């Protein structure tokens, strides 16, 4: 049954458009602790800026580094902007799915696929001059699940994540690689319970959490749309936001899609009538990460402000903000003064950055 399901996922997620990057993937071996033998491939565009940002791009079940490289726009956009490089890991499982269920992968420095991916990040920082304060992750389906896992288990490593058609952190936790109850939308928890699971990924951690962006199609029959609402409960609890969005934008970034913003660190995009094969919006992801400016779409939008009550603790204003850190944006309540010689630069309505 599981192998049949993998074929369904593969057929629905095989990306028909092949994006031609200027260069090729390069495999890296011996990059550090790697208990499950995850494979590491990198893409570094010609003319890459010094101290670039890094995006870890995580494939779907039955996928591979090469498939995600050629099936998404991240590499050719890196050729265009030259301000970030990419790591494309390949999952070691024979079905191509990521380990998002074991206690090892869900826990900081405990093992699993997640530790291998983090070792790749540390290798890139040490060997390619990657800016450690600008490390991001994104993925689709199983890769979206791993994006959530990394956000929970390694909040000290990643600045932001964007997950397409995934499930909440630890929703797949258990003995088996596949969790039917979660996949079918039968797992329901309170916001506090979901948030506690994220916090359990790195016990005792009190530092900043990665910004999160989640995407889901309302007609997803592989990972039921119910998971979208559960993930909203999870991340709003983690960030101390109300589960009522502070801003709702219809037809954004595409017609029939709705973007709900809950605060400066979390937004959720619902795609009406779209199944599991949710088209990756790479430009929007780069905008959310603060790597490029501009809006996320180009289609007409209708914006309505919704009442909200938040419990987030304001950021301390005792010291100027460091280079590349957030200094403004929708719902932001922290310090807006950047350390010299940097200035607070508007990237988009959601995010301003010290540049």
Automatic annotation (TrEMBL):
Family matches, as InterPro entries: AB_hydrolase_fold, CBD, Esterase_phb, Plant_Biomass_Hydrol_Est
Lineage: Eukaryota, Fungi, Dikarya, Basidiomycota, Agaricomycotina
SUPFAM superfamilies (UniProt xref): alpha/beta-Hydrolases
GO molecular function, one term: carboxylic ester hydrolase activity
Protein name (database record): Carboxylic ester hydrolase
Entry EC no(s): 3.1.1.-
Superkingdom of origin organism: Eukaryota
UniProt function note: Esterase involved in the hydrolysis of xylan, a major structural heterogeneous polysaccharide found in plant biomass representing the second most abundant polysaccharide in the biosphere, after cellulose.
